Each structure stands twice: as structure tokens, then as C-alpha cells.
Amino acid sequence: MSNQTVLVINAGSSTVKYQLISPTDGTAIASGIVEKIGEDLGIIEHKFGGHAYTETLKIDDHGHGLRKVLELFEQYGPNLAEANVVAVGHRIVQGGSVFPKPTLVTDEVVEQIRELIPLAPLHNPGHVKGLEVARELFPDVPHVVVFDTSFFQTMPAESYTYALPKAVAEKFSIRRYGFHGTSHQFVSNLAAQTIGKPLEETDQIVLHIGSGASVSAIKNGKAVDTSMGLTPLEGLVMGTRTGDIDPAVVFHLYREGGYSIDEIDTMFNKQSGLKGLCGHNDFREVLGLIEEGNEDAKVALDVFVHRLLKYVGSYMGVLGGLPDTITFTAGVGENNAMVRADLIGRLAGFGIKLDPELNEVRSKEPRIISAPDSTVKVLVVPTNEELEISRQTLEFVK
Ligand code: ADP
Question: What distance in Å separates the CA atoms of residue 315 and residue 330, rounded to the nearest whole number?
């Protein structure tokens, strides 16, 4: 195995996902996930050579989990000592305004990521644990952190500023950061390639629609706006998140409903969105219910598409005209022809049109699905955040 490889690590609060990637040819050589860290029974699944190996055991902490992963590499392959691992790339959700680009990990950088925990209490604590453990286990290679927020650090102040008292916003670092940046970056690059135009000459709207969902507006290849804000709660309707909502709903639930702030936080993040509207957060289940004639599921989908439509419309305003491309990505965007047809059908007045047959094609390749005479090229581009992290990591250590 002579190709340089990068080990990509995404450590959450109770999970660690990993992939061994060859960034130059884009192959994922091995991958896996450690789940339920700290619970009575945890699970590790390791994939290599077309096989999946699963172990269930109590996993005490992130260190225990990652050490176990190294044993699985030894037992089932590939041999890490021979894999030419040149760096470890870590996915970090929140880099605040401190990290506009990938950064080499030092003690000070770990400390800075720890200091950002108040801005990402669900994500950064797990990242810090993953960083500490991985640095111990792989002491001989550089570690690089790649942030979900970095791609959006090019947003102008008019996009990222909330109209709060200035001193309050400054004191608490309250602004819009945006998330899913690695995906928006990967997809916008590939969208430009797919239409054969230099990235710097493209205006784009990217729709990342998975269980979390976000839209970005990209002007001359750079992000100028995105739908997620201080946290990933803002913007689109998501599997379990409200997306945009009048903030006064919080005051109302608190004063009139007697809910605590933590209860409202949980309600907005975990019990709302599609799940709140029709009881299911998985898009496939929502579509199944619609086929059975379920009215709540129909309303849920309509609310979802209407919100998406509002973002696409407003981002055409932000871009000052029609973009070159509107690109769908992530679980729903890549796989769901019906949502794509519903949204694009509502944009017919702008001359944007799908080719209905191309829209139905299932493929893992980036592709154009609009009609030849559409005013905007509509694309499906499968995202690959791990590959993007591995590339940025390799680029950095070069
Ligand atoms: P995340 O990475 O944010 O967890 P994904 O990008 O994997 O999410 O997207 C998950 C969503 O994609 C789920 O709502 C799932 O129902 C939807 N999805 C996946 N495959 C399909 C499909 N073939 N048709 C419709 N929806 C799909």
C-alpha cells in the first residue's frame, strides 16, 4: 500500500466514527463506528475488504473504544503500520471565529476547542476527548482539525450578524456560524466541475438535506450566506428540529406553558421538525405515511418544502439573480426524487425545470437533472465529508 492515507476521526459524545482514506484516489480503505460509549453494552463495527466485523462489549470511554479499534485493525486488517498513514484528520463541529481554516493540533489548539464548548455543548466535548486519545495512540503523525464552520467564515457581516444589542452579542460570541461547511464545500467544488466552470466563476445554491438540513448561497465560489446560525437549530425544518421559529414562542412556552428552558431546548432540537409534525423523523417513513393517505405527514412534507422554497428564493436575492446551479445532496437530497420534483416544480416561474427522467435516475455519481432549457442547472452531487476532511488534512500536512 504505497498511497498516502489519512485516518479521519469524528468523535461524538458517545460515538467515534473513523475512516482510513486514500485522499488522492478517494478510496475508503476501511471504516467503522464505536457506539454507546459509557453505556452498559457498546458496539463496534469495523469494515474492511467487503466484510463487516461487529463486537459488543462495555466500552468505558473514548480511549477504550479507540484502543479496541486498533485491535480490530490488527485482527482483521488493514495493517496500519503498513498503510502509510501520514496524518489524522479530526472533524470538529464548532470552530467559532477562531478557526477559519484547518489547523495543526497542538496543546493550545485543543484548549481553544475546549473553550468553544459553550457554543457547541453537544459536540465539542466529544471532539476534545477524541483528540486527546487519538494524539496518545498516534503520537508520530501530525493531527489536523477540520471545522464544519470554516467554510462559512467568508460570510459578510450582514449575513452573520444578529440584530441584538452589539455589546451582548460580542460578550457571548453570538453570531451566525453555519454548519455542514465541509459538505457544502465538497459539493460546491464538484458541482462546478460537473458543469465545467471554474469554481470562482460560479454562483451556487447548495441544499444539504439529511436528518440535519441546511442551505448555502455561494457567490464566485465563496459562501455568502447559510441557513444554520449560532447552532444547527436555525433554518430549514429538519428531522427533529424546528428550524426557524419566532423566538417569542420560547417566552410563550416558558410563561404560559410552564416549560423550563432545558425542556424547550429538548423540544425544539429533538421533538419537533418532521417528528413533531407527524410522529416520524425519517423521510422514508414520512413518504410511506403520505402514500397511505396520512394527512399529518402530507402537511409535514409541505411545511418542509415551503421552508426550503423560501430559502432558495431569498438566496436568489442574496446572489443578485439566478445562480448557475442548485444542487441537492445528503440522504434526502441524493435519494428522494419526489422532494426534488416538488421544490423545483415550485420554481417554474423562474424558468427552472427538471428533466423528469434524469430526476428519477439512481446513481452515486454527480449529475445534472435539469431540462436542457432550464435557466439554472439543477444537480445531484453525493456528499463525502470524510473524503473532504482527508483531502484538507493531506493538503495541510504537505
Ligand atoms: P445524517 O448524515 O444527517 O444523519 P443523512 O444524510 O444520512 O443524515 O440523511 C438521512 C435522511 O435521508 C433520512 O431522513 C432518510 O430517510 C433519508 N433517506 C435516505 N435514503 C433515502 C431514500 N432512498 N429515499 C428517501 N429518503 C432517504
Answer: 20
